[in-house]
């Protein structure tokens, strides 16, 4: 799978901002990782001071790299999408059904961070639209390959699949492991009947 222009656009958001000096790049990466954790735990209102503290840097370093909260949201979101695209590339040689389900389970992890960031970014932002296109270009071929192998029902589109998974991940589950059980049940409905 070659890197698409949409994936390149999403990657550019992070690459353009990422410092070249090794110590500054480490700080940048630590801030992104800390922000991803904080947004997953506390939503879009996560404290920037807490993010800096988690990254082991001062608040000034955070603001040097991400002048506004929106810059931080966009960078975390783009990095998450880039990671999902890379997972799809890495899975391209795996058998079709395991490749698709492995990618979808990683997609579920991504949606935890995505929800907080998407609400903050507004679903119509250029960044959101470029990242959405990247996701579809990364995951779509995995579904198509599984359909061509007879592993997945042919009457569904990648958009159907994403919406189903997004619906599952958008609700709270009262017990540990329930989301994974529900996802497994839903994926069973995706399998082709022989």
From TrEMBL:
<dbReference type="InterPro" id="IPR036271">
    <property type="entry name" value="Tet_transcr_reg_TetR-rel_C_sf"/>
</dbReference>
<dbReference type="Pfam" id="PF21597">
    <property type="entry name" value="TetR_C_43"/>
</dbReference>
<keyword id="KW-0804">Transcription</keyword>
<dbReference type="InterPro" id="IPR050109">
    <property type="entry name" value="HTH-type_TetR-like_transc_reg"/>
</dbReference>
<dbReference type="InterPro" id="IPR049445">
    <property type="entry name" value="TetR_SbtR-like_C"/>
</dbReference>
<dbReference type="InterPro" id="IPR001647">
    <property type="entry name" value="HTH_TetR"/>
</dbReference>
<dbReference type="InterPro" id="IPR009057">
    <property type="entry name" value="Homeodomain-like_sf"/>
</dbReference>
<dbReference type="Pfam" id="PF00440">
    <property type="entry name" value="TetR_N"/>
</dbReference>
<protein>
    <submittedName>
        <fullName>TetR/AcrR family transcriptional regulator</fullName>
    </submittedName>
</protein>
<keyword id="KW-0805">Transcription regulation</keyword>
<feature type="DNA-binding region" description="H-T-H motif">
    <location>
        <begin position="47"/>
        <end position="66"/>
    </location>
</feature>
<keyword id="KW-0238">DNA-binding</keyword>
<feature type="domain" description="HTH tetR-type">
    <location>
        <begin position="25"/>
        <end position="84"/>
    </location>
</feature>
